[in-house]
Amino acid sequence: MSAIIGVLVVAATLVIRLGQPLTPRFDLRAVAADSIAAPEGEAIVAAGAAQGALILVTRDAEGAERLHLYDAASGALIRTVRIAREP
Q: Of 17, 50, 62, 85, which is most buried by a Cβ count within 10 Å?
C-alpha cells in the first residue's frame, strides 16, 4: 500500500512540475524605466526581458546584429554585444 502511495506522490509531483514554465514569468511592473534609448540607425528586430533587464536585438544598415542589455530600473544601457553568425 505504501508503495502505491509513493508512486502516486511521485507522479503527482511530476505532473505539477512539468506543467509549470521553466522560467518565472516576467512582470512588466518590475520595469521602472520610462524609456530606453534605442541605437540610432539600427532597426529593432527582437525584444525580450530577463530578471532586472530589458534586451533589444538590433540590425544596422550593413546587416550587423547586436544585443543590447538595459537595466530595467533605470533604462541605462549595461552592455552591447555583437552577434556573429556562423556560416
A: 50
Q: Give the number of other Cβ atoms within 10 Å of residue 54's Cβ.
A: 19
Residue 11 belongs to some domain of the structure: no
Instruction: Give me the residue label for grid cell 540607425.
Output: 41
- Cβ-in-10-Å burial (0-12, 13-18, 19+) of 8 comes to exposed
Question: Could you tell me if residue 55 is inside a domain?
Answer: yes
11-15, 41-45, 48-52: segment of lowest average pLDDT: 11-15
Grid coordinates belonging to 57: 536585438
List, edge to edge, every strand of the sheet that includes 53-59. Answer: 43-50, 53-59, 65-71, 77-83
Our count of domains for the chain comes to: 1
pLDDT in tens, 35-49: 888 889 999 998 888
Locate all alpha helices (DSSP H) within 2-84, ordered by sequence: 2-18
